[in-house]
Design a protein that fits this description.
The structure is a single chain. The longest helix is centred in the middle third of the chain and has 18 residues. It is built from ten helices and eight strands. By secondary structure, it is an alpha/beta fold. Helix 5 links the parallel strand 4 and strand 5. The protein is about 45% helix and about 20% strand. The chain has a single domain, classed as Metal-dependent hydrolases (TIM Barrel, Alpha-Beta Barrel). The chain has an eight-stranded parallel β-sheet, with helices on both faces.
């Protein structure tokens, strides 16, 4: 019934209790999970998991804070991984100016390179944007990312900018903060934007929703996110879940079944 479009089962915090994490999710009705890479090794791991489990798909990409000293070799490996049958997206990619492990110029180069790869392989993008909303939007527009679209991961921007992303064929990833008392931005977006542009994600092991905030997150908690989305939209949980399933199929296309 539920889909977690962004989970890091390739992260050591979840790998430590992997089978328990998976079983807990399946028990509450999580049908599909997309494991998202953030460097070369986690992208490889995402593909391995997708090949091992029918209900797992992979996204491969280099997070903006992880691209220091990456060369053509890493990008060639990324293209090989992205060509695998169960890889449904390039991500997570974008900008992150909260941390200072990489420069703005390095992040821009990596981002553009991965946008071009997505267009070459006709795969949607999963976009990470932290402290960089305007530049993210400008970069996607300049480099015609609308040709592939994708998901704005854990979208924290304004309703006005959200509407601009929709025009570029991006849906909005709704995550744990939608349940926070101070999560006004994300709540406002869910209320204002048509349900056909919203998808659910946990970003596990991060962004744990209430009432478990502060604990390690898991894909089972996508249920809490969908419940809050349904409440904000004034519809049933099953209707919200069906909208999300339809949206995910539209975004990822034939590689996602």
């Amino acid at each position: 019934m539920f889909i977690d479009t962004h989970v890091h089962l390739n992260n050591p915090q979840l790998e430590a209790n992997f089978e328990q994490v998976i079983n807990d999710a399946l028990m509450v009705g999580v049908e599909k999970m997309i494991v998202v890479g953030y460097d070369l090794e986690t992208s490889k791991k995402a593909v391995e998991l997708a090949n091992q489990y029918d209900f797992i798909y992979a996204a491969v990409g280099f997070h903006p804070t992880e691209i220091k000293n990456y060369t053509d070799d890493e990008y060639q490996n990324l293209e090989l991984l992205a060509s695998m049958p169960k890889v449904v997206a390039i991500g997570e990619v974008g900008f992150d100016f909260h941390w200072d492990t990489t420069t703005k110029e390095e992040q821009l180069t990596a981002f553009v390179r991965q946008i071009e790869l997505a267009k070459k392989l006709k795969l949607p993008l999963i976009i990470h944007s932290r402290d960089a909303h305007q530049l993210t939007f400008e970069t996607l527009k300049k480099h015609n990312a609308s040709k592939v679209g994708g998901i704005m991961h854990s979208y924290s921007g304004s309703v006005e900018m959200a509407k601009e992303y929709l025009k570029m064929h991006f849906c909005l990833g709704i995550s744990g903060p939608v349940t926070f008392k101070n999560g006004k931005n994300m709540k406002d977006v869910v209320k204002a934007i048509d349900a056909k542009y919203l998808v659910s994600e946990t970003d596990s092991p991060y962004l744990t929703p209430e009432p478990y905030r502060g604990q390690i997150n898991g894909p089972k908690n996508v249920l809490l996110i969908v419940e809050e989305m349904a409440k904000l939209k004034g519809i049933s949980i099953s209707e919200m879940a069906q909208n999300i399933k339809d949206n995910v199929k539209r975004i990822f296309g034939d590689k996602y079944e």
